[in-house]
Amino acid sequence: MEEAIGLNREGVKKQIYHGGTGDLPKYITGSKVTFHFRTLKCDSDRTVIDDSKKVGVPMEIIIGNMFKLEVWEILLASMRIGEVAEFWCDVTVESPSMYKRETWALNNDEKLKVVPLLHGEGNRLFKLGRFEDANNKYREALICLKNLQTKEKPWEVPWMKLEKMINTLILNYCQCLLRMEEYYEVLEHTTDLIQHHPGLVKAYFLRAKANAEVWNEAEAKKDFEKVIELDPAMSRQVKKEIRMLETRMQEKEEEEKLKYKNLFS
User: Fold this and answer.
1) Beta strand 5-6 with 32-35: parallel, antiparallel or unpaired?
2) Are the C-beta atoms of residues 35 and 58 closer than 8 Å to each other?
3) Which residues pair with 35 in a beta bridge?
4) What are phi and psi of 46, to 5 degrees?
């Protein structure tokens, strides 16, 4: 066991019980870190407050993005892969009514109540054209629901209700990504949704739009045709999208012909 050391952070000390391997990871924004943790009080009994191994699900956080408690990122950045360490962190205790708690700090009932508020705020921001801010709200709501879903059994009604809510939020999230021109991320999320829920019309429509933007004409048309098959009422809108795609493909083909003509002339 190594002697307790500071981390160049006031109020934080660390003690290593088992050294990890390799160099310290260099996390960038968006990196996902998976780890087990146990939270204890600094009392004589070292009372356990939370233990991920007892729950059976490791903690996952996205660096600089999805988790709002900054100290976790500081602690993890000091650890090597496979390392086991203990940290002492000074905290200021406030009652829930004295501050706005982050969603991770809410209990299950509070999370269920806050999700519609986050969803509604995301929709409002989307209408204002603030797509990145809207996505942050949708993402926060998704974290709440996925956390609750891990505690439910897949064959029970609450789990199925949560799944439906999650699907709706993911589709809204993908709408924002389309506006933000993150087409390949849209393809990834919608393909995953379609694999698990092949009847989601909106998933096919958004995937078709994303395929069209990255010049996957055949894949886009196939998805648009599937939209009409599942929901004939969307035929007019889909046919308009197909005409727009065909026009763009023709323009692209003419541009490429002109480019090669100039190249060899």
Assistant:
1) unpaired
2) yes
3) 59
4) 50, 55
Contact 104, 140 (CB under 8 A): no
What is the C-alpha separation between 129 and 114, in angstroms, rounded?
23
Among 240, 235, 178, 252, which Cα is nearest to 211's?
Answer: 178
Name, in order, each residue with C-beta under 8 angstroms of 126's C-beta and a sequence gap of 6 or more: 134, 172, 175, 176
**pLDDT, tens digit, 9 for 90 and up, residues 221-262:** 999 999 999 999 999 999 999 999 999 999 888 887 787 766
Q: Residue 78 — φ and ψ, nearest 5°?
A: -95, 0
Report field, pTM of the whole predicted structure over 0.70 = no
Pairing assessment for the beta strands 38-40 and 32-35 based on DSSP bridges: unpaired
Please write down the HEC assignment for all residues of the chain: CCCCEECCCCCEEEEEEECCECCCCCCCCCCEEEECCEEECCCCCCCEEEEHHHHCCCEEEECCCCCCCHHHHHHHHCCCECCEEEEEECCCCCCHHHCCCCHHHCCHHHHHHHHHHHHHHHHHHHHCCCHHHHHHHHHHHHHHHHHHHCCCCCCCHHHHHHHHHHHHHHHHHHHHHHHCCCHHHHHHHHHHHHHHCCCCHHHHHHHHHHHHHCCCHHHHHHHHHHHHHHCHHHHHHHHHHHHHHHHHHHHHHHHHHHHHHHHHC
pLDDT tens-digit profile of 164-222? 999 999 999 999 999 999 999 999 999 999 999 999 999 999 999 999 999 999 999 99
Q: Which amino acid is at 81?
A: I
